[in-house]
Each structure stands twice: as structure tokens, then as C-alpha cells.
Structures
1.
Amino acid sequence: MTSVANIHEKMLGIFEVDPGIVHNFSDGLYAKQMTIPKGFTAGQHAHAFSHLSILAKGKVIVKTDNAEQVYDAPACIEIKKQVNHMITALEDAVWFCIHATDETDVDRIDEVLIQKGE
């Protein structure tokens, strides 16, 4: 199976959309809300910690290096730590990433949560 990183490189150009990110914080929890239009992809990355994601609206395919799964809203999905993943909207979608963190600086949040390449 082709790795998610390789797929991401082949798909450059369809990532250029403003996902209208909304940052939500509450006592050690962070929820990142994204709106992903049909046909667009939220780029590949991995996290140092497992977390939950919620598909609130639409239909998506979640691809990892080892699998791909289609989800219809509403759905609660576990994203495992250290697994590259990307989300492609098969319909207009609203997606939430839920993380346990005390970081509340929106300029640093991705730096804290997204695993650095090695």
C-alpha cells in the first residue's frame, strides 16, 4: 500500500482551501473544528498521543499508511498516536479533533500536538 506521505505529495494542489478553523478550549481539552469541502483533503500528519476526532457532518475517508476507512456523520473516531493520517471529504464535512492539552496559544497548538518528522 502507498504511504500516506507519498499520497500527500501526489495530491498537492487540492489542499489549498481555508478550512475555517475554530479553536475551542476547556479545562485541559482542545477541540479544533475544520470545515472540509467535498473533494478536498486535510493534509497528512501524526500526533505524539492518541486522540478522538468527531465527524459532525458529511462523509469522509480517513487514510493511514496501513488502512483506509469511510465514515458517515455522526461518527467518533480514534486516531492512534504516531500514525500518519489524512482526511478527504467525500461530501462537505465538519470535523473536530479533540486533544487533552493545557496549551491554549493558537499560535503554538499545532507545534505542541503534531509529531515532528524524524
2.
Amino acid sequence: MKFKNYLTEQKVKAEDYEAAIVLGFLKITNQKLDLNSAGISNSVYNTLQKNPKILESGEKIAKKVKSHFRLGNVKAEQYGRAKSSLTDFWKSHGATDTTPKTDILIGDKRLSLKIGIAQLMSGGKAESLATFYAAVDDVGEGIKKDKNYKLTEDVINSFITSTTAKGQIGPLIKSGENEVVNKAESAHKNAMKVLGNLFANNREFKIAFAREAMSGFKKYGKTSNSAAEFMLVASHDGSSVSIHSVYDDNYCAKIADAAKLQVRFKTSQKVSKASVTPQNPKGKTGMYSFWSVTSLIVNAMSEDTYHKGETLQEIAILKKAKNAVLGFVNKIFKSVKSTAKKFINFVIGEEKPTITTRKIKF
């Protein structure tokens, strides 16, 4: 069943799935629901009551979690709204975002939920730098010998923070009229190149970068509830569920290889009470804030996806082989076509045959 079939008039978000899993866990363990204790807002709870399919999926996923960890009647909480404390390391790079990497806390199991297209990180200038230095701290000073290290450090430092302009970012980029946007867009393209090169030349760094993006170990500290220890990967209908430890080097390597790097603008439209009208109930002003972000995105993170990825590679190989065979057949067809044409011309008297002879010794 397609994800869109799960949607009613109210849009279901990834955060709603987190709440559905918590509700599902409380249900299968016969625990009394307390929304505050479970970290679930009234609005999310009301949305889920109108989406029984999401509740059903949440219960299926919760059963897999309970079975995987052999959990009893432990506390379950949607953790995304919890307050977090950053490490001194993280704050020293100017980063201030405190959104937990842990989405769901069940007992002492800190889970980051990934359904469908998963965004491991989407950090602005300070968050990007902190993640960069966290990976450097893990792999050691040797990486600084790579010329792309300094290039990456410099280009991230050139990212823009919050800047305001009239109109959406797409047309601004296309027009080339805003100098700030032009410089930032150039920096984004450059960052994609040099950071991509740094990843390609230093596999351990690439893995360390992905691990920090997934876990937040350096950001919050390994023992913090805000740092995720497990990736909970599930399909929208809850039929496919897998759980992976962030400490697993092989898993982090697969994620690092599967992740797509993006360096781009992130935008937010400004609103104002003074602009509110019946035709403009949200008070949109037409002014946008925009800033640079680094994102790591994977299409899916389950073992099934890896097999699918391998299959896609095999398809690529088969496609190449297919093209080669078609090319060979094409050549034969052209040769046959040419010979046939000559034969027909000969028959109708428009061309004389070319006869090749050779001496045969007896």
C-alpha cells in the first residue's frame, strides 16, 4: 500500500509515526496512557485518532522493537521535544541546535526512527562545522594532509547564516541578481566538490561523519538520552522493520556509502500579524529568510535496501552488457542490410557484384 493512502485530510508527518509507535508499545504492554509522560502533544494524538492505519503501523513496529530487545513494561516516550544539553566540544564551534537525535526512548533504548527517505542531518554553518570537526576528532590529525581538508574547512566557513530577501530562493538563484545568493550558491557547489573529494579519499572520515550525523555522540555525549544508539528502520505500513546499532562499523559504512550529500539553501517565509487578511490568514509577507545547510540523505536504511542497491548495481552491469550486445547486433544488422541491398541492386541490374577470389594450392 502506498504511503499516500495512509493520509486523510490532515497530513501525517514522520513525528506522528514516532508517537504511533509509543502508543503501540503502551498498548501491547497494557500500560496506561499519559500524554505528558509519553511526550505526545494533544494535536499529534488527535491526528493519529483520525489515522487508524498509522496507529496500526505503529503497533506493528512496536511489537518488533519489544521482541528485538526483549523488553517488558518499560516506559515509552516520544523524545523529539525533550530538552537537550550540548557538549562543550559542540558549543565551542558555535553550534546551538538542541534537537535530539533520539526520536523514541523505550526503556534505555535510544532509537532514531527512519521511514522512507531519511535525513541524517540538515545543519547550518555551525552545525556543519561541528560535525566536520567531530569526524576529524575521530580519525585523527592525519586527514589534514589531504588538501581537501583545508578547502572544506574554508568553504564551510564561507556559508551564509540567516539572510532575508524578497521572493523565493529558486528564482533568486536563477536571476543572478542577488550577490549574497550568488556567492552562497557558488560556495555550495564548491563544498559539494571538496567535501565529496574528502569523503572519497578518506573512507574512515566518511564513516565517522555519517556516524555523528546519525548518533549525535559528540554533540550530546554518548551516554545522553539525546544521542541515538540505534537506527529503527521501518516501512510505512510496519511490515518491514530492522534495528541497527550505531556502534556497528559495517552498518555505518553501508550508510556512509548510501548517503547522498547535499549542500544547499534552506528557507523560511516570514509572517506578520499586520499582513493577516481573510485572503492571507497566515500573514505571509513575501519575504524569505535563507541560509546554507549541509544534508546527508539516504533513500532507505534497511538491509533490504542494501540488497536492492546491489540489485541496482547488477542492473547497471546488465544494462551495460545489454548495450554491448545491442551494439554488436546493430553492426551485424547493418552489415546484413548492406549486403542485402547490394544483392537486390545486383538482381535489378543496378550494381555489379564484388567477387573475391584466392588461389587454392592442392
3.
Amino acid sequence: MNIASYSDLMDAARAQPQPQRMLFAFARAERPEASGGTLEPVMCVDKTLDELSTFDALVDESRHMGAHWDIVFVTSMSGRAGKPPPSSEAEAPLNMMVTYIHTGEIGRFLAFGKDGQLLSLAAAS
């Protein structure tokens, strides 16, 4: 399936043979004067597909957390035996997402801007 939007991502996740837990790492773009800028993770969350609706709802929920962000990185975890992974299993993968964002290894995730548009990002070499 070609994923071109958040809605496509949710459709693809729902089409998987096992229930998915979606992992979101929200990052703020920082642009120091002397360099091209960095991405700083500011918060993470995991959700089952039943806990998600529209991208606008995700953005609204993030506003209540009070952290400014510019990009949200998304990946998923596959469940077992017809059940999504428990939230307790999401902590280590979320921590890895933060590490990958810090090291610029962002190509393994989908990324969306605040407007819900899928972004194509390239890490600086």
C-alpha cells in the first residue's frame, strides 16, 4: 500500500494481520544560527488504533500536553494472538525512536507536519 497521508497510514495499520500499537515521537525543529538545525524530541506517546481517530484529534491532544512541536515521527508495533502489544512494551521502542531522531536516523519512520502532510526528510550527512 502506498502511504501518502495519515489516513492511509491508519488504513494500512488496520489492514495488518495482527492489531497494531502506533508509536509517535513529536519533535521540535531547532535552528541554531551557526548550523543547519536539529530535531529535538519533546514528547512521545503510544496508542492502539482504537484510541486514534483523525490527525486533527492527535494534534489537539498534543496541544493539551503543552509542548511545542513541528514534526511527528510515526512507527508501529505488531500485536500477537489478535491483541495489540500492551503499552508497557512501547517504552523501549519509543526510547529508541528518540535516539534515532537524535542521531539523524529518521528514514525508518514516517513523518508528518502539523498540517497532517506526509513529509519527505533527508538526514544531513
4.
Amino acid sequence: MRMKMHVNRTLKNKNGVTLIELLVALVISALLIAALYQTFIGQQKTYIVQEQVVDMQQNVRVAINKMMREIRMAGFGNISTVLPVTFLGGTRTYPNVVNPDLPVPGALTIVSGIGGTATLLKQPGDLVGPILLASNRIQVSSLAEFNTDNKRYISIGGLEGHAIIGIDVGNKILTLNSDVNSVYKTDGSTLVYAIRAISYRVDVDQPDSPILRRDENTGGGAQPLAENIENLGFRYFDGGTPTTPPQETADLAKIRMIEVTVTARTDRADPDFKGEDGFRRRTIASNIHVRNMGISQ
């Protein structure tokens, strides 16, 4: 009898988990897991948003920095003697150093000797073998950036502009449309610049992925400069009140500064962002002084 009572007393002292306690533990665990999951999702979303914002800011800065460098050089090469310049079989003509709304509305095209370069080897009066160079002929180190079609405009030493009307490929001799006006060093220190018409425009043919494009008008087409750029704006200053296109052609010669405004957006919309369409946007504006306008025109 004593042994039986001892066994019963031992069984009663053993602890166990009731069904209610198990359910309470499961509920608490589920709540903790849900909270941790929610925290993880929030952090992941914040990281993605920050990454998109960084990409957007990088895009807009790359775009405006590239345009700043090139627009600042508009007119370089004393190119007034070759204006207007024509490209692509005469389908595109740019009459000025700065050309608002060309080749399409909202675009800007600047003309400048900022293409690839060669060095001047021989000038008028020099001998190239048995050939005595005439007053409108020069020899250059490379023909890679020149032809008689879309790459025919050059600037010798950045001082005078000409158009190429003929090429002696074997001797690398360029025949120009006008006489060379100055005497240059032929020791490799005189550069022959390729004059280009650089166009900037926003391609909105695909609204879901607007792209800022840059075109050299040499047949390669408009190439992507920056993605997710949905707006590009210009204002032109001649020392007085800023103007926006359209404007008289005569006013273009007076332009000394161009204000460029670029608006970029994130690659994807954020449904939780309280914006108009869920896209975050950044706008950068920069005033660019066109240093060569007074020289070229």
C-alpha cells in the first residue's frame, strides 16, 4: 500500500504542457515571426528604394555633366566659315552654332570642333613626295575621323574651319573648299579637329522607359546617353532676359549662356510612394557659359 501511494505521488509531481499553453506559445511565436518578417521586408524595400534613387541621381548627373562639357565648347574651332553645316545627305541642316528645336522640337544641336583629331603633317607649299600642296590642300596623320560626307567639316588648329571636298587616301591629303589662311607648325603639335553637330533630345517613343539621346549626325543614329530621363529643357541668355524657343535666328548669335534643366525618375514606380504616379523624381539645372560664341560668329 505504501509503495502504491508513493508511485501516485510521483506521477502527480511531474510537469506537463497543456493544449492551451501550446496554443499560446504558437501564437506568440507566430507574432514574433510576423514582426521579424515585416521588419525584413521594410528594410529590403528601403534598400531597393535607396538603390533606385542613387541610380536616378547618377543618371541625371552623368547626363548634365556630359552636356555641360560639350555645350561649353559650342563654336570651338572658329567655325563661322563653314556654317551652315549639312549632314545625312542634306536632310539635316544647322545654320548656327546653337540651334534650338533642331532636329526636332525640344531638342538642341550645337556645332563645335570637338570630334576626333589628327595632326597636321604638311600644309600648302610643302612637298608630299613629288606633290606640291596647293593653297587648299593639307596632309594629316589619320583619316579615321574625316570623309567627304558626314565627317567633312574640319578646324585646323582650332583657328579656321573648312569643308573637305576631296581625299587622296594613299597620301592622306585633304582637299578643302577654301584656302588655308595661316601658316602652322607641322611637327605634330598642330591638331586638325573634326567639326560635329551634337544633338540632344529625350526619346519619349516609349513612355515607360524615356531615354536622353545624343546624336553626332554622322549616320550612327541617336545613341543613349542616360536612361529614365523624362524631361530636358533649355533657356537661352544673351546678357538680358532669358529666352526660350522659338526665337529669331539673329538672336542666336548673341547667346552667351544656356540654362539646361534635366529631370530624371526612378526606374520603377513605388505603390507606397505618395506621388502622382509612384515615381520619385530629381531635377538638376545648370547654367553653361558658351565661351566660343563671340569668336565663332
